[in-house]
Amino acid sequence: MKSFLRLSVAASLTLALIASGSSGATAGQSATDLAEPVRIGFEVRNGQPVTASGEKVTDYWTPERMAAAVPIAGPASNGTSGERAVASAEGYTLTVGKIFYTLPGGGDSWCSASAVDSPKKRLVLTAAHCVLKESGWVFNIAFVPGYENGEAPLGMFAATNVTVSPSYIHEVPDYGFDLAVLTMANGDVEDRPVGRVVNPFPVEWNTGYEHDNVTPIGYPQNVNGGKIQHHYEEVSTQESPHDNMIWGDFPAYHGASGGPWVRNFNGDGNGTIISINSLADGHGPHLGDELKAVFDWAENFAPE
Q1: HSE, side-chain direction, 13 A CA sphere, residue 228
Q2: What is Dmax (Cα atoms) for the chain?
Q3: CB burial of residue 11 (10 Å; 0-12, 13-18, 19+)
Q4: Pairing of strands 245-248, 272-276
Q5: Across-strand partners of 48?
Q6: What torsion do the CA atoms of 122, 128, 131, 132 make, to the nearest 10 degrees?
Q7: How many angstroms from the chain centroid is the CA of residue 33?
Q8: Contact at 8 Å (CB) between 233 and 260?
Q9: Which helix (H) or strand (E) element contains residue 236?
Q10: How confident is the model at residue 74 (pLDDT cuts 50, 70, 90)?
Q11: For the chain, how many structural domains are there in total?
Q12: Is the pLDDT of residue 18 over 60?
């Protein structure tokens, strides 16, 4: 039996927890009403997202809060099993990091994410299930590229907007569209877009389901408590029995959700993203036209 997160459509589209600046969705809309990507915004003051109390999001995430954050179990699926890919802690890249966020009902958590290339250099990819929970949207989102053992070697970048596909938002989410595109403010250490601080990965769209030499990267909690970056080597992928999903036989434990699948990975920004960690048994969304539209929508609305 598949184990899937169930969403109340009304709850998933309620923006009461989101400060002003949202667009693309309003409370009371059904998923079928949404022909365009769903984009929500967070309150920004002087160029930086702020918490409900007016504190900068990047100031909220102290080392103590990051250490205390707990990853939430991601969605699971009964996929076909085979020979498992080999895990490795080698190949550390500053392009991949953690996103930290506050849950709708309170409490802090994290997922994995990566900086991706685009003209404005402000986009980060993660999983939609990381940012949209059963009770609503998460907030206080910050990306820490190259996170390691509690350190933020390049500082952090707070999210101004989140964009997801309307196809993801159903009573039972469609994980074939489990992708969120985050738009980031300038960094708190370097006052520049994230894609000018790290070497971002390019994203490949509509490349099919079968790939060789794929490296899934993330921060699974079962490896040193998620304190270090981890990846699986030389994964081969194929079409999944789940609609619009790719499958590679490796476990994506709690915390690894949202991390990139990089084809021909060879260090910071070298290689191309063909999917991300979604279901816990090695499934990721196929990056086709609809998810490309989500990406383009986020880029279009991103500031220069």
Answers
A1: 10
A2: 52
A3: middle
A4: unpaired
A5: 45
A6: 140
A7: 25
A8: no
A9: strand 235-239
A10: low
A11: 1
A12: no
Q: Confirm if 111 and 126 have CB atoms less than 8 A apart.
A: yes
The answer to whether position 201 is within a domain reads yes
Average pLDDT over residues 162-166: 96
CA dist 92 and 104 (Å) reads: 32
For 233-252, how does the pLDDT look when each residue is reduced to its tens digit (9 = 90+)? 889 998 988 889 999 878 77
Residue 96's H or E segment, with its range, is strand 96-102
Model pLDDT, residue 27: 31
Task: Look at strands 44-45 and 211-218 and give their pairing.
Answer: unpaired
Domain membership of residue 192 (yes or no) is yes
CB 57 within 8 A of CB 140: yes
Task: Please give the distance of CA 16 from its chain centroid, rounded to a whole number.
Answer: 22
Question: Residue 140, by phi and psi: left (phi above 0), alpha (psi -120 to 50) or beta?
Answer: left
Which pLDDT does position 84 carry in this prediction? 40
* Partners of 273 in the β-ladder: 203, 262
Asked if residue 203 is part of any domain, the answer here is yes
Q: Which residues are CB-contacts of 9 (< 8 A; sequence separation ≥ 6)?
A: 30, 31, 169, 170, 171
User: What spatial distance separates the first Cα and last Cα of the chain, rounded to whole Å?
Assistant: 46
Residue 226 domain flag: yes
With a cut of 90, say whether residue 120 has pLDDT above it. Answer: yes
What's the domain range around 286?
9-301
Alpha-carbon gap, residue 180 to 136, rounded angstroms: 14
Class of residue 205 by CB neighbours under 10 A (exposed 0-12, middle 13-18, buried 19+): middle
CATH number of residue 196's parent domain: 2.40.10.10
Above 60 in pLDDT, residue 2?
no
Can you give the pTM of this predicted structure? 0.87
Residue matched to tokens 């909220």: 60
* Cα dihedral: 50, 53, 58, 59 (round 10): 150
